[in-house]
Structure formats: structure tokens, C-alpha cells
């Protein structure tokens, strides 16, 4: 690249954009000036330019550490089309190919060199880097250094050595994950003590957030896709590989072009599916969360979750893949009681110590609270990331169709006394289904067999429908007034349950809207 060009020249002449966005300009000037930076910017915010432009302005090669091996080729091709000298080193290269890139680097022919973190951990890689001139280090997806995050990569922990070996080379760490805790952890673990922090707003105003009660997920999904997103590209996230395959089949059977993506598929199939999704119009990718990190497809019109994400960070990141072009898009999540039971079970049986499990639990609780809120989803989401907005958004389901809240104290007492009788008096383990049957006064075989029709609470809950009881249970779980444990989702009391039973605490619950937000109302522009 010709030297002497300023950041704005490079933006216009190389990348063809008129103006910087948000903090881009400040970040870029800071790094060009040799400063370290920690950049927290939402997906689609334009993080790449923050290191690509300094790479072109500063002498030497920018070394970009990225875990996204599958995308390196793509990124490098895009840069080369713009006339930027870029190369990458990862496990997909054979020895000869790697030698070519290494020689280019040593000869000072590269503006950018992308490298996978596991590669960098090898002594050979460090010797190679010592042969060239380094303009800066960019550490992409920096939250991978966080041991609490779901993207943890052990190799990221070694990256602090870059600073020890090259103390004068500026470093820029970038991520779209931004709770205060992760933020601090990145700074500490990467040794970014002197770094300036650039925190952008995490609001994605063009994404409409909607969370619905899961009844018949397939039918609900189909209605959502047919009613609002015919012919549009989007992602459907499922928890397991098995459900990915089944839902993809189901959509295809119903005339919706869908592709599966999960870590259990053959590499080639995965690459093909990803490629088709990026290049063709109107495909629906049904995937586990293995799909999506670093995917830059601007016109993803919706992200649907058929299972509850494990944390708000995950939810935010996954939904953030919608609407990168700024056009109206929808984040739709169907969630039910079974999700809570299943995730609690996964936490209970997860590896790791008590602290780790408590951490997972807290993440899940925050996610549940978001699902059950009567307040604006967006403000809750932003508040979680420490960005209070203090206003409502008019572009989420709770703003568009405010749910009523009702005094559920009596309902909660009925439910909790049922749980109390089973747990404390009879020492029996039952899940939501049996409790609801007791409350509704249903004489099923299982009720008769266990003499549950003899309980005083039998039939006291016939004023609510089964779906309403499920909603009550979900919300009590979300409020910590009830817990579930074990393989069969046994309902148990918590420390706070007694306050409700003892009439010392009022319980406010959210009433599900009768009809979901219609397509017309949803099409907010
Ligand atoms: P991130 O890595 O933060 O998710 P990207 O760097 O991939 O985001 O940028 C998202 C999209 O925005 C890309 O298509 C990129 O070309 C575009 N973009 C970035 N900066 C600008 C800008 N200043 N003006 C116009 N488009 C931009
Ligand atoms: Zn809102």
C-alpha cells in the first residue's frame, strides 16, 4: 500500500465508503498512533475496519488472530479483491502453501496476516513472526479468552505473550460480547492494562425482539416463517444436532428451502451449506450455535430460536446476526417450561466445580428473567450489558402488545402448596405435569395410582387452564420462587417459597397475550 495515506483516504479509496461509523475513526487513529485498544462493538458494527485500516497505514504487517478458520479464506479473498495484500495461516494449508505465505510475510509483502490461535502457540510460528515487521496485533473475537463464555479457547490464554515479546507493537482486541465481567476479564487476561476502551452502544434498533410461549413449536415456527418471512433468508437455532436435522427436514417437507448445520456433519457438507447460505437468496439455515460466529451476511431477515439460549450473551450474539444491513429484522424465540427443566438438568450434570455451575445458573436466570419480563425487552437487554436506555423501544413484543400483569399470589400459593405436600409431606418427586393434573383435578391413572386425588389441593386450580398453569410455573421458576431438579424435572421449593406460602409476599405474573403479534403489526419500518 502506498504510504502517506490517512485513515479517511484509505476508507474511501480502498474500501469505497464515505464516512466512518460510530467510534471507528477514533479507534483507528488511536491504533495508528501506537496505542492499545479494547473494542466492544455489536455484531455488524464494523469492527474489521478498526484493524484493517491501521494495517494499511502503519508500516509492516498486521497480524490478525482469529478463531474463525472457516472464514479466513473468505476474508482474505475479499481483501485481495480490494487490492489489499493479505494472507492466512491455519490448519487448512499444506506445508508448501504455508511456506509461500511465510515467505511473503518475511519479505514484507503482506499488509495483513490472519492466523489461528492454535497455530500461534507453536514455536515455529513465533520464529516466523520474528522474521518480519509487525504493524499491530489484532485479537478478534477476544471474548474467546473468557473461561466463563461458551466460546472459550484455551489458546487465547497464551496471547498475553505477544506483548512480552513485542512490547512496542500496538494491540487491538475486539469483541461483540460485552458484559462488564467479560470486558474486565479480556483486559486482565490479555494484559491490556494501558489499553483505551471503546464501548459502542449495543442497541440494534432494526431488530424486533419477540419471545413467545412454546406450545406447538413446529406449527409456531411455520406460521412465523410463512406469515412474515416467505422467501427470506434466516437462521433457526436449535439446541441439539438431532433437532437441527429434524427441523430442517420438516421445513423442507413444508416447502421452505432449509439446510442443516451442526458440528456433527461432515466438514465438506458444512462448508457447502454455509457457502450456499451466504451466496444464495432466501435460504433458511437450521443450526446449532456452532453456526454463525463471524458470518457476514447482511440480509438475514430473522433469527428464530426453538430452544432457550443458555445466556443473554448467547441470545444477543445469535440474534445479532439478523439485520446487519440495517433493514427491519426479527429475533423470535419460542420458550417453554421444558426448556427450563432441560437446562437445569444440563447444569446439574455439567462438569466443573460448584462455582462453575453457579455461574451457569446465574446466566440462565438472567435469560429467564428476560423471557418473563413485562417490560421492554430491549431496555432489559441493554441494561444487562450495563447500558441503561431508560425508555421503551416500540419495537419489541412487550412494547407493541403490552402484556397485562395480574396478581398471581393465590395461584402461586396453590401451586406451591401442591409442591409442598408432595415434597415435604409425602417425600415424592413429581414434575410440572403431575402438579398441574392435581390442580386441575384430573383423574388420570397416575393420579389414582398415587392417591393424589386425596390431596386437599386436588382440583383447587380449575379456574386456570393448563397452559396458564404452565405459565405460572415458568414464571415462578424465573422469579426463584420454585426450582426444578433431577432427570425428571422434579419441582421443589426454594428458600423464598415459604414467603409466598406464608402470605408475606405478593406475586405479580405476566398474562400471555391471547394472540401473538400479527404479521402486520410486526412489519414495523
Ligand atoms: P463486525 O465485525 O463488527 O460484525 P464488520 O466489520 O463485518 O462488522 O462490518 C459489518 C458490515 O458493515 C460490513 O459489510 C462492512 O463492510 C460494513 N461497514 C463497516 N464500516 C463501514 C463504514 N464506515 N461505512 C459503510 N459500511 C461499513
Ligand atoms: Zn421494547
UniProtKB/TrEMBL annotation:
Domain Helicase ATP-binding: 28-196
Domain of life: Bacteria
Domain Helicase C-terminal: 217-368
The protein's required cofactors: Zn(2+); Mg(2+)
EC class name: isomerase
Keyword Hydrolase found: yes
EC number of the protein: 5.6.2.4
Keyword annotations from UniProtKB, A to Z: ATP-binding, DNA damage, DNA recombination, DNA repair, DNA-binding, Helicase, Hydrolase, Isomerase, Metal-binding, Nucleotide-binding, Zinc
Reactions that this protein is recorded to catalyse: Couples ATP hydrolysis with the unwinding of duplex DNA by translocating in the 3'-5' direction
Similarity-based family: Belongs to the helicase family. RecQ subfamily.
Protein name: DNA helicase RecQ
Organism whose genome encodes this protein: Dactylosporangium darangshiense
Upper classification of the organism: Bacteria, Bacillati, Actinomycetota, Actinomycetes, Micromonosporales
Residues of the full protein shown: 1 to 525 of 919
Amino acid at each position: 500500500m502506498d504510504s502517506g495515506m490517512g485513515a479517511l483516504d484509505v476508507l474511501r479509496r480502498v474500501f469505497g465508503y464515505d464516512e466512518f461509523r460510530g467510534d471507528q475513526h477514533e479507534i483507528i487513529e488511536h491504533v495508528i498512533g501506537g496505542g492499545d485498544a479494547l473494542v466492544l462493538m455489536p455484531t455488524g458494527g464494523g469492527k474489521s475496519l478498526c484493524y484493517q485500516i491501521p494495517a494499511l497505514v502503519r508500516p509492516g504487517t498486521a497480524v490478525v488472530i482469529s478463531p474463525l478458520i472457516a472464514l479466513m479464506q473468505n476474508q482474505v479473498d475479499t481483501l485481495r479483491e480490494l487490492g489489499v495484500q493479505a494472507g492466512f495461516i491455519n490448519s487448512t494449508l499444506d506445508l508448501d502453501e504455508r511456506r509461500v505465505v511465510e515467505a511473503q510475510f518475511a519479505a514484507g509483502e503482506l499488509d495483513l496476516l490472519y492466523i489461528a490461535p492454535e497455530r500461534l502457540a507453536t514455536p515455529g510460528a513465533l520464529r516466523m513472526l520474528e522474521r518480519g515487521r509487525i504493524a499491530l496485533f489484532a485479537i478478534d473475537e477476544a471474548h474467546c479468552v473468557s473461561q466463563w463464555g461458551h466460546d472459550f479457547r484455551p489458546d487465547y490464554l497464551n496471547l498475553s505473550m505477544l506483548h512480552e515479546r513485542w512490547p512496542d507493537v500496538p494491540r487491538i482486541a475486539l469483541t461483540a460480547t460485552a458484559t462488564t465481567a467479560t470486558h474486565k476479564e479480556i483486559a486482565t487476561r490479555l494484559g491490556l492494562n494501558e489499553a483505551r476502551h471503546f464501548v459502542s452502544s449495543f442497541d440494534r434498533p432494526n431488530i424486533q425482539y419477540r419471545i413467545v410461549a412454546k406450545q406447538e413449536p413446529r406449527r409456531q415456527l411455520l406460521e412465523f416463517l410463512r406469515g412474515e418471512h416467505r422467501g427470506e433468508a434466516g437462521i433457526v437455532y436449535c439446541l441439539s444436532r438431532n433437532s437441527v436435522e429434524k427441523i430442517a427436514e420438516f421445513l423442507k417437507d413444508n416447502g421452505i428451502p432449509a439446510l442443516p448445520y451442526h458440528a456433527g456433519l461432515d466438514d465438506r457438507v458444512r462448508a457447502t451449506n454455509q457457502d450456499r447460505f451466504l451466496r444464495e437468496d432466501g435460504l433458511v439455515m437450521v443450526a446449532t450455535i456452532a453456526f454463525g460466529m463471524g458470518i457476514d451476511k447482511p440480509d438475514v431477515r430473522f433469527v428464530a430460536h426453538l430452544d432457550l439460549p443458555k445466556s443473554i450473551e448467547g441470545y444477543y450474539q445469535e440474534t445479532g446476526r439478523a439485520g446487519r444491513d440495517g433493514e427491519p429484522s426479527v429475533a423470535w424465540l419460542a420458550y417453554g417450561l421444558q426448556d427450563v427443566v432441560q437446562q437445569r438438568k444440563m447444569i446439574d450434570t455439567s462438569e466443573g466445580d460448584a462455582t462453575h455451575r453457579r455461574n451457569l445458573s446465574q446466566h440462565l436466570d438472567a435469560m429467564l428473567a428476560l423471557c418473563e419480563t413485562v417490560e421492554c425487552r430491549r431496555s432489559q437487554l441493554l441494561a444487562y450489558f450495563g447500558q441503561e436506555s431508560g425508555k421503551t423501544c416500540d419495537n419489541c413484543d412487550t412494547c407493541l402488545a403490552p402484556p397485562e400483569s395480574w396478581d398471581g399470589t393465590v395461584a402461586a400459593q396453590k401451586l406451591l402448596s401442591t409442591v409442598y405436600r408432595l415434597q415435604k409431606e409425602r417425600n415424592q418427586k413429581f414434575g410440572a405435569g403431575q402438579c398441574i393434573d392435581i390442580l386441575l383435578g384430573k383423574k388420570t391413572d397416575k393420579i389414582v395410582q398415587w392417591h393424589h386425588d386425596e390431596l386437599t389441593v386436588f382440583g383447587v386450580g380449575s379456574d386456570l387452564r393448563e397452559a396458564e398453569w404452565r405459565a405460572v410455573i415458568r414464571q415462578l421458576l424465573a422469579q426463584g420462587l420454585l426450582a426444578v431438579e433431577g432427570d425428571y424435572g422434579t419441582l421443589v421449593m426454594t428458600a423464598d417459597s415459604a414467603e409466598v406460602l406464608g402470605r408475606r409476599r405478593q406475586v405479580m405474573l405476566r398474562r400471555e397475550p391471547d394472540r401473538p403479534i400479527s404479521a402486520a403489526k410486526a412489519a414495523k419500518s
